[in-house]
Design goal:
Distance between the termini: 31 Å
Order of helices and strands: HHHHHHHHHEEEEEEEEE
Largest sheet: 5 strands, antiparallel
Number of strands: 9
Helix content: 40-55%
Radius of gyration: 34 Å
Shape: elongated
Length: about 260
């Protein structure tokens, strides 16, 4: 069988399409179409995207998409993993490590001198105050009678005390995104533009991602169920890619080119 890229290019030219025509028909960016024809697999965002692009391209130019996908899987998919581990530990773990390094130095600092005499003086002052209070209490019969009677409850203060004692419900902080794929689906997740990618790979089961302000996702297929902050997000089942940005206000679809890992 001829190379995949050559097969695609010849079929496109037979149909009389240029790359711009095919970009309009397939909704695949022109740089990815050229990468397919030149077999520049490293310029494409992962095996799942490559197979999706191959199917769409082949259907538009009259080729058998199954044959091309199988050829790619046998020739290239086993050569490298679909995603690489993230470089270095997360930022939160690095901050915890730095705090652990500072703790021994803080624990070794000696306390301020002269605390012992101050504590002794404070105890003596309290004992003297109690002694004087006892002397004045013995000379005041009214105080003794008042002490024998139990204090009367304030009917107005009791409801206020109970209201203050009642715990207030805590509001969940941050945003959450739950992804439940119905079939294995490529996903790339980050915490906003310019931040590190927190996950890139193939999701085969439900996964929940959390962050303080924002979570973004780029999905290789629409065959998923999404929940943003506990509320379902309507997603049409399709092999096309889709991206979402989740904030405290909910989920909003983001266009290709501004999604994670693109």
């Amino acid at each position: 069988m001829p190379p995949i890229g050559e097969t695609l290019r010849e079929a496109r030219m037979r149909q009389g399409f240029d790359v711009a025509d095919l970009e309009q028909r397939t909704k695949i960016r022109a740089k990815y179409l050229r990468a397919l024809e030149n077999e520049e697999w490293e310029a494409l965002p992962g095996h799942t995207f490559v197979k999706t692009f191959l199917r769409t391209y082949a259907e538009q130019v009259g080729l058998d998409p199954h044959m091309l996908v199988e050829e790619y899987r046998m020739s290239h998919e086993s050569e490298e993993r679909d995603f690489a581990p993230l470089a270095g530990p997360p930022a939160a773990l690095r901050r915890e490590t730095r705090r652990d390094r500072r703790r021994p130095a803080a624990a070794a600092r000696p306390g301020p001198p002269g605390r012992g005499p101050l504590i002794v003086l404070a105890v003596l002052a309290i004992v003297a105050f109690i002694f004087v209070l006892g002397l004045f209490g013995e000379d005041n019969p009214a105080s003794d009678r008042a002490g024998d009677e139990p204090p009367k409850a304030d009917p107005v203060a009791q409801p206020r005390e109970r209201a203050r004692a009642r715990p207030r419900p805590t509001r969940p902080s941050g945003v959450t995104l739950r992804i439940a794929p119905s079939v294995p689906t490529y996903a790339c997740v980050d915490n906003g533009v310019g931040t590190e990618v927190v996950f890139e790979g193939t999701l085969e089961e439900a996964e929940t991602f959390r962050n303080r302000q924002i979570v973004r996702v780029n999905l290789g297929k629409r065959s998923v169920e999404l929940q943003a902050n506990g509320k379902p997000v309507e997603v049409t089942d399709s092999p096309e890619t889709v991206g979402y940005e989740v904030t405290s206000d909910g989920a909003q679809e983001i266009v290709d080119g501004s999604r994670p890992c693109t």
